[in-house]
Inverse folding.
């Protein structure tokens, strides 16, 4: 009984309500009730803002509260919330797309060729050992402050994750299934297209979900270090003004962007992998 | 050759097939493997022929190299010595002969394809138009008794149903020669009998040339028109029997025939010697 959906939903909403209430009023209440030394500083709205302030910042940044009207506000600020979100989303998308496409291609090629896998193996391990974030200043130096450097950063982070999974997935393909396909008349390319790729797809998708988050992280870090527009830039600007509520707005927007991208990948996954038991219900 | 009682019948059967052309010729076949520096002989100087329309069972104890022989005939495995001819052409390793179909023991269905997509795989990659394919696939699904499961994925099916799909995936390409590697080895007794029924019905109608690997004596007697008995490792040819049980055969009724009983006890003793040799190793 306690597992029924209503009970679960109740507890989820209850937790949300408690968090919001404590966040909104917790600091005032504890200041009134407790001796000063015991008031937890982390609840101070100066550091963590509070829901009502975040909402106001959202309305202001999102051009909902502007006296000149929505359109004038949008055109007046070239890094308004909408444009910043769009830029970050766009760069995340392209970085994710290029990163996973090249990761899948490289993984398939090296997974199918023992020779190439042996030749490139040590280089890939070495490159993968570099913390990707360390490369961001270099990437910005090369590609400039624009969108290209953010896409390149996201690509760097995504490529290796997807590459390794595709490589392993390609290696794990059932040899007898390949033999069966050959005996049914499949050429080398047909085997790749009809057996290796579908079979490795489960491994590929296992990496695509984290890859989406990584792409977003890559873009945001790129924007922190040097950018003209984007949500990361918005946060850096808000930090300069010590405006916690504006930072929170950008963080919440990122959360929604992340959720949307994850849902997109997951629905593609449950369609393409509908032959697997765990995706049966959604097929 | 076999002893006196059914000999007349067996000879008549032989005469009948003597005129037929040889489809598979195995001559002095050998296979050696290297395992951790030590060479061991898996198959040693095996020769036999399979004629057009024969159903030959390759019978032997586990590890006698019977699957190895089949895989060399299929061109899946390089041979260490000897020759294999299919229709007078030497078998080349890695080269697929479109006249030859192969059924695996292990489940090799493509789990991401539905039953009908699995069965239609060979036709699809051969570039047959969708409409033409659909008719032949539907007929094959029907023939395998899988109507209603055409859109199911393999994991939703039982072991027996999956093996039916695998069989149809091969048969739909209408191979003239069928190589089968213990295709029903992983099935329970009841399912196995049903598969025997299906295979007998198909074979008695279409008369492909079959080389069927098994370690199950009952299965070999039920299905085959000839049994080649192999010795324990290294696999050598031990005996060659004709199975003169009249057709059409029923997988249950066939067990009550005198010929079945006679051959069963004879081969059983011969096979028993080999099992004892395997254990003595």
């Amino acid at each position: 009984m306690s597992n029924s959906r209503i009970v679960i939903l109740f507890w989820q909403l209850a937790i949300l309500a408690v968090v919001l209430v404590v966040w909104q009023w917790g600091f005032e209440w504890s200041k009134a009730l407790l001796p000063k030394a015991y008031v937890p500083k982390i609840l101070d709205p100066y550091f963590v803002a509070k829901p009502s302030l975040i909402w106001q910042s959202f309305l202001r940044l999102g051009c909902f509260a502007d006296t000149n009207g929505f359109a004038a506000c949008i055109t007046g600020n070239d890094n308004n919330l909408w444009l910043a979100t769009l830029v970050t989303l766009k760069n995340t998308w392209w970085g994710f797309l290029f990163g996973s496409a090249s990761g899948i291609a490289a993984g398939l090629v090296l997974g199918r060729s023992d020779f190439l896998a042996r030749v490139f193996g040590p280089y890939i391990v070495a490159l993968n050992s570099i913390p990707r974030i360390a490369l961001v200043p270099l990437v910005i130096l090369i590609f400039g402050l624009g969108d290209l450097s953010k896409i390149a950063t996201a690509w760097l982070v995504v490529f290796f994750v997807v590459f390794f999974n595709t490589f392993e997935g390609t290696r794990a393909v059932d040899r007898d299934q390949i033999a069966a396909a050959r005996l049914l008349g499949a050429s080398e390319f047909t085997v790749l297209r009809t057996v290796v790729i579908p079979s490795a797809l489960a491994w590929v998708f296992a990496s695509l979900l984290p890859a989406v988050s990584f792409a977003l992280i890559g873009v945001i870090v790129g924007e922190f270090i040097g950018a003209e527009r984007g949500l990361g830039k918005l946060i850096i600007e808000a930090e300069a003004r010590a405006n916690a509520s504006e930072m929170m707005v950008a963080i919440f927007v990122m959360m929604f962007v992340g959720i949307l991208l994850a849902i997109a990948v997951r629905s593609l996954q449950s369609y393409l992998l509908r032959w697997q038991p765990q995706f049966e219900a959604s097929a | 050759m076999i002893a006196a009682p059914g000999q007349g019948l067996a000879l008549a059967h032989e005469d009948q097939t003597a005129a037929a052309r040889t489809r598979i010729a195995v001559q002095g076949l050998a296979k050696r493997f290297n395992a951790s520096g030590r060479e061991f002989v898996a198959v040693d100087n095996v020769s036999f022929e399979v004629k057009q329309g024969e159903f030959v069972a390759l019978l032997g104890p586990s590890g006698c190299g019977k699957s190895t022989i089949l895989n060399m005939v299929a061109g899946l495995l390089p041979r260490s010595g000897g020759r294999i001819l299919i229709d007078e052409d030497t078998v080349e390793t890695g080269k697929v002969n479109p006249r030859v179909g192969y059924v695996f023991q292990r489940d090799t269905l493509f789990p991401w394809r539905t039953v009908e997509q699995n069965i239609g795989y060979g036709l699809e990659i051969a570039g047959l138009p969708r409409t033409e394919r659909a008719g032949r696939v539907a007929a094959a699904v029907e023939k395998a008794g899988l109507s209603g499961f055409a859109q199911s994925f393999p994991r939703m099916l039982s072991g027996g149903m999956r093996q039916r799909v695998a069989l149809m995936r091969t048969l739909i390409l209408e191979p003239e020669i069928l190589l089968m590697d213990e295709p029903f080895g992983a099935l329970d007794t009841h399912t196995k009998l049903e598969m025997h029924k299906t295979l007998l019905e198909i074979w008695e109608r279409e008369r492909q040339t079959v080389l069927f690997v098994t370690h199950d004596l009952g299965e070999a007697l039920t299905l085959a028109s000839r049994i080649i008995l192999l010795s324990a490792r290294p696999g050598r040819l031990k005996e060659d029997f004709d199975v003169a049980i009249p057709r059409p055969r029923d997988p249950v009724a066939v067990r009550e025939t005198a010929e079945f009983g006679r051959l069963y006890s004879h081969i059983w003793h011969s096979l028993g010697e080999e099992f004892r040799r395997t254990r003595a190793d």
